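Input record, target 12 of the design panel.
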């Protein structure tokens, strides 16, 4: 038998539709994985800022307590003004001590953190975006305010992080 060889043009250069679609699908899956991790890291970063903010407010409240032997009530804490107190018995008083230059706000909404106090104790509340965080002060089921029984934390939903004075529960 004789073999017949057909001569023709060489193989065409390029990719088939199937090969292109396979590459696009692979790139799409990689982009989805990367963006998912990116969004998660943004949430963790905002939660870390919330924790740091509440820790800074806690330090200021403890300094205030050392000087006044009472914690400020929520009505006395104006988030737009420095957290300060006067140190004289008569008015007008020109001597003030600033404990916190400006009250920090939530990184998502900019609103102030929830603060509860009657002067003998305080509790600071914040929301948490990372539902997997189980660190100290975190309760994923949510905290309730003692005074009202509410669990809402402003714009973010349920309060999941709490910082308290040493004499509160």
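The sequence produced for target 12 reads:
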């Amino acid at each position: 038998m004789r073999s017949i060889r057909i001569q023709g043009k060489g193989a065409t250069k390029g990719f088939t539709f199937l090969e292109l679609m396979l590459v696009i699908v692979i790139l799409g899956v990689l982009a989805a994985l990367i963006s998912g991790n990116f969004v998660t890291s943004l949430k963790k970063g905002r939660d870390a800022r919330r924790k740091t903010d509440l820790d800074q407010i806690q330090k200021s409240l403890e300094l205030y307590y050392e000087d006044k032997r009472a914690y400020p009530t929520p009505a006395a804490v104006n988030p737009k003004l420095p957290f300060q107190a006067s140190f004289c018995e008569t008015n007008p008083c020109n001597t003030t001590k600033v404990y916190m230059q400006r009250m920090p706000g939530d990184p998502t909404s900019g609103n102030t953190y929830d603060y509860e106090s009657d002067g003998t104790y305080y509790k600071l509340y914040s929301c948490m975006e990372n539902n997997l965080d189980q660190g100290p002060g975190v309760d994923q089921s949510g905290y309730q305010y003692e005074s009202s029984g509410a669990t809402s934390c402003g714009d973010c939903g349920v309060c999941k992080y709490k910082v308290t004075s040493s004499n509160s529960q």
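Strands lie at 83-86, 96-100, 114-117, 122-126, 161-164.
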